[in-house]
């Protein structure tokens, strides 16, 4: 089975979308961007292919006439098992790297023991982490393992009088190595089989479906890279597209009525106008200053000691939003602390900060040619309810009623557009195969 | 330019460049020797410059804008701007001004490494830029020398009326000429001026032929990045001189040869072999990263076939010529007609004409952060051109001489997106 892949290498996350020969989305994958772009791309693509395999598996189950409820339960269980296997594999790699540092560096026996015990606990907990009904704060190993590691070594450090900073430093070094090492990507079959063994009631139909889904050969027919890091991607020039074009086309594919697209990513904001075919007709983006982009929210979350995904819901509770003047990330941090010290409510300040970001985006939208119906909001910030709320209000105030489209997969918009370009390129070269 | 591509034709191309370089260097060293020769200098601005009149009195023109951009190209503007900011000039002030102030602090050393003379007169041709007035106000204090202001009325209605022209002529007669006589100790010589203007018109004919050669496909010149070299002599100290006549004759011959040979423009990376995009460009270039900026176009096969920046020192391709039979009147019309003195509708008309006549694929605006007189209204211009011509507009932002405003990655991103947008539009691809 041939596929085309689009990769969007953003400043924060790297996304991949895999399209089948017929143009259908087979799978999507995401990982955190890291210093080694090539590996970030590799991980995102392999994640997309894993999700494609799960898609194939679902089809295979359908063919086995497994009813929908059971199918979903089985897939859900398998996926948790699969992710646990992945997590344990990564933990093994983390241990290997850490042991290397522990042996080479000036770590005492007590420190080595603490790390050893920490990793053992983490391994033991993996079943619970991916158990039925569990939820995880992040999909990225770095975050999942990191937060647990810090808790555990923190406790050891206190109990045993060890240097917490030193143990944290060890993790920081090791996780970089783990992330920047080519992971074992070819083990879908092995992991899914391992996951199968822990399912409470494996059955013959499921086993057959798994065999069928893993046997499909997935062959890459084309790829296109986009995003902030596209120039450094290991791609030929003709396999690189600007993220503006990719977001335009991706938004058009998700919502064919789209005429205006706003994308707020980690470090840039783009306002794009597209025609009825998804072709970009005009665009504006922020200049050398990244004020008011996604990173701004990340910084605010750190300042408030909150998770990034907690900001929006808290801001939505605001009854009296505070007027925040600055979209400069650094100044906003200062303004935030000042407001807090004046006794303003956190939700009111956060609501003001979200509005400030959107006001900046409104200016870009205006300069790009306004907001036309339909309007599609993409990028990581589109998942934030306070940002989308402020956007909807300001658009209605300035332009009147507009249909506001936000896809749950909005973070993949650029990668989807890139994959579509890849597929077009492929069908141009091999018109028969792509009929 | 690069030795490996140096065949007979590129060597010829080098001739005019070499010639131009020599002319400018000779002028700067002449300026540096004024304390020995006793020659005197007049500082003035490019838009609305009265070069022939200044040289009529054997005075030497100095153009602070040119010094600033040359400083930027030599990588000096950053420290000059920092020096001016230390004195209290704000970050938002025109960076030409700050660069000039900083250069003065560093000993007024010009682009060739030689010291520039203090002015004997500041001739303020006020042509569409309010900052010019403030700039010479600062220099007046620096040098303690007289300022003569030539007030050139803005073409608010999009035309030059008789009363506007009379007003400028009156000022030239009653204010500018007496001031120049006083600064030089010489009398005004109208016969000499007529000769000068005859030479001006001759050079202008050749310049127009060079600029219009870009109507050919492929264009033999880059009318923006290459264009700034071509306009150099005529915009600065040489209009009306035999040097300028010779230079433009040579340049024109080279260009015509390039057209015959079907050659593309010579760029920093050699000859552009494949012309993929033809652009009209509005706004001045960035000088601190001039080559890097140009190469972003070259990398994508983009040629600038017409630009408005090359009209700030005179809109010759619209038909204007200095006229020896109407010397002062034509000088007045020259000042009134400069690009910086045009209102928005006239600028739109010019750009629309360029897009059509040069068969451009798009209009690109380089919006200058610290230049309000250029940048105000540019997005409206962009939309208007898109509407009238159907070609897509592109928009990048940088600055004249402040390197802090040049974000290479951002500009490259926008440019690449823009070129891909043109390409996509051209193909009219549908899913």
Describe this structure in words.
The complex is a heterodimer of chains A (435) and B (431). Chain A has 435 residues and is of the alpha/beta class. Chain A has 2 domains: 2-215, no CATH class; 256-406, 2-Layer Sandwich (Nucleotidyltransferase, domain 5). Helix content of chain A is 56%, strand content 13%. In chain A, the strands form 2 sheets. A 5-stranded mixed sheet of chain A has the order 7-6-5-8-9. In chain A, helix 2 crosses helix 5 (164-179). Chain A starts with a strand and ends in a 6-residue tail after the last helix. The model of chain A has no long low-confidence stretch (mean pLDDT 88). Chain B is α/β, with parallel strands linked by helices and 431 residues long. Chain B folds into 2 domains: 3-189, Rossmann fold (3-Layer(aba) Sandwich); 192-427, Rossmann fold (3-Layer(aba) Sandwich), CATH 3.40.50. In chain B, 52% of the residues lie in helices and 11% in strands. In chain B, the strands form 3 sheets. Chain B has a 4-stranded parallel sheet with strand order 2-1-3-4, sandwiched between helices. In chain B, strands 8-7-9-10 form a 4-stranded parallel sheet, with helices on both faces. In chain B, strands 5-6 form a two-stranded antiparallel sheet. In chain B, helix 3 links the parallel strand 1 (41-44) and strand 2. In chain B, helix 8 (162-184) crosses helix 13 (327-337), helix 12 (290-298) runs parallel beside helix 17 and helix 14 packs across helix 16 (378-389). The longest helix of chain B has 25 residues, at 8-32. Chain B is globular. The termini of chain B are far apart. The relative contact order of chain B is 0.13. Classes of the chains: A alpha/beta (435), B alpha/beta (431). The A-B interface holds A 23, 231, 241-245, 249, 252-253, 268, 277-285, 287-288, 367, 369, 420, 424 and B 379, 383, 386, 392-393, 395, 397, 405-407, 410, 412-414, 416-417, 420-421, 424-425, 428-431.
């Amino acid at each position: 089975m041939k596929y085309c892949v689009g990769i969007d290498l953003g400043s924060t996350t790297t996304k991949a979308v895999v399209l089948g020969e017929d143009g259908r989305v087979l799978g999507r994958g995401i990982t955190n961007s890291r210093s080694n772009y090539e590996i970030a791309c590799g991980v995102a693509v392999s994640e997309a292919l894993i999700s494609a395999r799960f898609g194939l598996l679902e089809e295979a189950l359908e063919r086995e006439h497994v009813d929908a409820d059971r199918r979903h339960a089985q897939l859900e269980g398998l996926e948790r098992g699969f992710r646990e296997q992945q997590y344990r594999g990564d933990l093994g790699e983390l241990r290997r790297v850490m042991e290397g540092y522990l042996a080479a560096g000036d770590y005492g026996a007590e420190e080595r023991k603490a790390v050893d015990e920490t990793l053992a606990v983490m391994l033991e907990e993996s079943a619970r982490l991916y158990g039925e009904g569990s939820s995880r704060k992040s999909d990225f190993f770095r975050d999942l393992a990191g937060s647990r590691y810090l808790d555990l070594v923190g406790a050891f450090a206190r109990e045993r009088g060890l240097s917490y900073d030193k143990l944290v430093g060890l993790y920081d070094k090791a996780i970089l190595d783990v992330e920047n090492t080519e992971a074992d990507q070819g083990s879908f079959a092995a992991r899914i089989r391992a996951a199968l063994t822990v399912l409470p009631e494996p059955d013959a139909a499921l086993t057959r479906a798994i065999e069928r889904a893993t046997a499909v050969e997935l062959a890459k027919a084309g790829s296109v890279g986009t995003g902030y890091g596209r120039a450094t991607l290991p791609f030929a020039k003709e396999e690189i597209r600007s993220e503006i074009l990719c977001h335009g086309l991706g938004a058009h594919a998700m919502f064919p009525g789209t005429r205006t697209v706003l994308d707020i990513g980690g470090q840039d904001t783009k306002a794009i106008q597209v025609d009825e075919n998804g072709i970009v007709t005009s665009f504006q983006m922020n200049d050398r200053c990244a004020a008011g982009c996604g990173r701004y929210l990340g910084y605010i979350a750190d300042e408030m000691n909150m998770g990034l995904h907690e900001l929006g819901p808290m801001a939505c509770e605001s009854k009296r939003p505070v007027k925040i003047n600055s979209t400069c990330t650094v100044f906003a941090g200062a303004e935030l602390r000042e407001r807090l010290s004046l006794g303003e409510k956190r939700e009111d300040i956060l609501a003001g900060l979200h509005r400030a970001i959107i006001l900046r985006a409104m200016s870009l939208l205006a300069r790009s040619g306004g907001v036309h119906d339909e309007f599609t909001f993409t990028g990581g910030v589109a998942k934030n309810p306070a940002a989308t709320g402020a956007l909807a209000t300001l658009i209605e105030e300035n332009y009147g009623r507009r249909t506001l489209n936000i896809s749950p997969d909005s973070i993949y918009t650029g990668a989807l557009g890139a994959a579509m370009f890849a597929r077009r390129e492929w069908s141009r070269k091999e018109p028969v195969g792509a009929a | 330019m690069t030795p490996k591509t140096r065949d007979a034709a590129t060597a010829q191309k080098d001739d005019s460049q070499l010639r131009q370089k020599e002319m400018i260097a000779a002028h700067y060293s002449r300026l540096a020797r004024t304390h020995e020769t006793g020659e005197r200098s007049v500082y003035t601005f490019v838009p609305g410059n009265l070069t022939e009149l200044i040289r009529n009195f054997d005075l030497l023109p100095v153009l602070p804008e040119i010094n600033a951009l040359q400083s930027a190209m030599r990588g000096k503007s950053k420290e000059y701007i920092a020096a001016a900011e230390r004195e209290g000039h704000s970050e938002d002030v025109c960076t030409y001004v700050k660069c000039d102030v900083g250069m003065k602090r560093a000993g007024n050393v010009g682009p060739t490494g030689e010291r520039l003379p203090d002015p004997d007169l500041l001739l303020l041709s006020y042509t569409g830029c309010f900052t010019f007035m403030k700039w010479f106000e600062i220099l007046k204090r620096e040098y303690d020398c007289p300022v003569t202001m030539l007030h050139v009325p803005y073409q608010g209605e999009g035309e030059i009326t008789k009363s506007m022209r009379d007003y400028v002529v009156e000022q030239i007669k009653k204010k500018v000429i007496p001031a120049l006589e006083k600064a030089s100790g010489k009398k005004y010589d109208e016969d000499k001026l007529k000769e000068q203007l005859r030479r001006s018109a001759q050079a202008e004919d050749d310049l127009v032929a060079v600029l219009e050669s870009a109507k050919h496909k492929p264009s033999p010149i880059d009318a923006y990045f290459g264009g700034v070299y071509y306009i150099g002599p005529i915009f600065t100290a040489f209009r009306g001189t035999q040097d300028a006549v010779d230079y433009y004759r040579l340049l024109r011959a080279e260009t015509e040869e390039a057209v015959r040979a079907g050659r593309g423009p010579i760029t920093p990376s050699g000859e552009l072999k494949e012309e993929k995009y033809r652009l009209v460009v509005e706004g001045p270039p960035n000088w601190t990263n001039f080559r890097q900026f140009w190469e972003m176009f070259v990398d994508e096969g983009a040629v600038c076939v017409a630009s408005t920046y090359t009209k700030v020192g005179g809109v010759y391709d619209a038909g204007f010529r200095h006229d020896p039979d109407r010397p002062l009147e034509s000088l007045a019309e020259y000042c009134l007609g400069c690009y910086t003195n045009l209102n928005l509708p006239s600028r739109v008309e010019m750009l629309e004409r360029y897009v059509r006549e040069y068969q451009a694929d798009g209009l690109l605006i380089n919006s200058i952060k610290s230049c309000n007189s250029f940048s105000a209204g540019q997005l409206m211009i962009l939309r208007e051109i898109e509407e009238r011509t159907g070609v897509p507009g592109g928009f990048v932002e940088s600055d004249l001489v402040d390197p802090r405003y040049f974000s290479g990655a951002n500009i490259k991103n926008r440019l690449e997106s823009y070129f891909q947008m043109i390409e996509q539009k051209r193909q009219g691809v549908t899913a």
